[in-house]
Amino acid sequence: MDKKILIIASIFLILLSACSTPLPVSEYEQNLSVRTIAQGLQHPWGMAFINESAVLVTQRTGTLSLINIPSGDQTTIQGVPEVAVVGQGGLLDVFLEEPYIYLTYSAPFETGVTTHLGRGIFENNTIQDFEVLYQAYPALPGGAHFGSRVIVQGDYVFFTVGDRGDKNFGTEHVSQNTNNTLGATIRLYKNGSIPQDNPFVNNQSVRDSIYTFGHRNVQGMTIHPETGEIWQSEHGEQDGDEINILQASGNYGWPLTHYGCTYGLGRTIGEFAHEKDDIINPVYYWECRSGGFPPAGMTFYSGERFPEWQGDLFVGNLAGQYLGHFRIINDTLEELNPLLANRGWRIRDVQESPDGYLYVLQDANPGGLHRLE
After folding, report:
1. Residue of 43, 145, 173, 215 marked active site
2. Which helix (H) or strand (E) holds 262?
3. Is 258 a catalytic site residue?
4. Topology of domain 78-216, per CATH?
């Protein structure tokens, strides 16, 4: 009996040692420092650089701030639309393509609240002639899963809408019902009109604005600098988080396929995506009981400040409280050492500035804007 206990204890110590042994840290990570640019932000959510000295930051409570990077001074931008600050909703993402500024946000619509996309002209620290371009349908009560990220690529604007927390895990789930625009990626022309080359135009069973569907809650989106592919990070139920590459008309499976499980009970949801030919498989995912990776904003790095990181993907981690670092190795996405761990920061967004630094938003109230150097 004593011998068995000794063997079990030895195995436990070996496993504990293996789990606690840190991965090798590169010279860049050893020399990494972090400079706080601004503090006192109220749940900062998205950012867009004007130039290397100024950045726009959304705060979920409804404020859009212009932050002077050298001084840290904050200026409140006027002309921001009224938002519904409910649950996960409020003022969400921002994208700047002069003279226009694009915003996603939650606001009342019909008998509920839904994700909106709007744009205006950004001039003299004011948004002028702001107009609503799109309202996700239907509007629902509650404050869960609004998405939302927005990017502009060529003539098109893409933005994401969450599934609003629908717990019907069957075929009638809103993300699989293409007569609505929940749990979807929307593609529009930059003026809000629907492109006639959208994949479902003239399909009576799918809304014309839908580019991809079957999503749960996409809160990260970026463009690969070499391929032009659009990448997304998506929240799973319990674990089951994903990194995806968009394919026009693609069904990303939620909740018919999922690698995670139900909160608390740990039950599997649907099948695995790789087992179904009509579902787009994620390029990276976290399985049930893996601990997951609640993902937020993301970006590919292409600057000169960190040559070792060129081409790497960085993804904000919320509950895990670190900056995820990924690299494509032999056509496979692999996760490297976490960055900014042990700081207790829920990282909501990460962006590269025009001069090649990486900036992160710490989602808290008060939260902050920080620069990696």
Report:
1. 145
2. none
3. no
4. Neuraminidase (2.120.10)
